[in-house]
Amino acid sequence: MKSNIDNNEFREGLEELSQHYSRIIELLGEDPSREGLLKTPMRVAKAMQVLTRGYEMDAHKVLTDALFREDYSQMVIVKDIDFFSLCEHHMLPFYGKVHVAYIPNGYITGLSKVARVVDIYSHRLQVQERMTLQIRQCIEETLHPLGVMVVVEARHMCMQMRGVEKQNSVTTTSEFSGAFNQAKTRQEFMNLINRES
Q1: In a 3-state reduction of DSSP, which class is residue 192?
Q2: Which of 19, 95, 117, 184 is the most exposed place for a label (fewest CB within 10 A)?
Q3: pLDDT confidence band for 161 (50 / 70 / 90)
Q4: Between 128-143 and 111-122, two packed helices, what is the crossing angle to 10 degrees?
């Protein structure tokens, strides 16, 4: 039977992934041949490939594709970058905002590229701590700035829907280097991201 999947849009293994989801539905006690579930395995397979598309992307290249020589040497902040990711422990979503600052050292990058870096690392199976570190390391290794700081604030569905079931908890992680090792510089960044727009 020929599939109507557009192979250019999705990665290899989509059909096999769909078959596994059909079996998962069956193991959960449902009938995958029931009308409402007939297309669910393929829908889930496609959704999972979209949610993990970051494995196919190079975050460093995104930054270098928009690298500009500039003598600006004050803090550059991109705040309130929305993100959605999947916790690698339960494959449930966690979501929130990322705030990024760097102090250029001769080079800047396009502002949208910082958001793209967040997008790439969040579209993988993740833990918040690693994602925070990966964003900081990518900017540091690519731009070689005087300092980088990343703060991630997130709500985790694995805490809200299962386990302790705490709906209002927010997890905050931070990573910093260079000039941000100074408490005064970190505080300036925190003041700026917490200020009302």
Answers
A1: helix
A2: 184
A3: confident
A4: 140
